[in-house]
Amino acid sequence: MAYYIVFMIQLMIWSFYSLARWLSKGDSSEFHWLLFLIFFYLCVIVAQRLLGRKRSYIITVIILLFYFSLRWMMSLFIQ
User: Fold this and answer.
1) In this structure, is the dihedral angle defined by the CA atoms of residues 6, 53, 71 and 36, taken in order, positive or negative?
2) So where does this one cross the membrane (predicted)?
3) How far is it, in rounded angstroms, from Cα 56 to Cα 70?
4) Tens digits of per-residue pLDDT, 33-79?
5) pLDDT at residue 71, rounded to an integer
């Protein structure tokens, strides 16, 4: 059950990342990378609180790959 909660919370966090990136279109790429690192750190902290230290990075990377692959597939269908 904890994995499901982490999955849902991190999907919401990555959705907020996409919204923040969309709202900051005019910023330079350095700020986009900084924004990515901040949101990635936030996801890792959430996973560490709910799952423990050992699996938090692995779960975060898996959810990150899932979210961006789903976002990429949806962009193919929308265009």
Assistant:
1) positive
2) 6-24, 31-51, 57-78
3) 21
4) 999 999 999 999 999 999 888 888 888 899 999 988 988 998 888 87
5) 86
Distance, CA of 49 to CA of 33 (rounded, Å): 24
What pLDDT does 10 receive? 92
Question: Does the model's pTM come out above 0.90?
Answer: no
Domain tally, the chain: 1
Q: Residue 39's pLDDT is what? A: 94
Residue type, 25: K
Q: What does the H/E/C string look like for the chain?
A: CHHHHHHHHHHHHHHHHHHHHHHCCCCCHHHHHHHHHHHHHHHHHHHHHHHCHHHHHHHHHHHHHHHHHHHHHHHHHHC
**Parent domain of 63:** 2-78
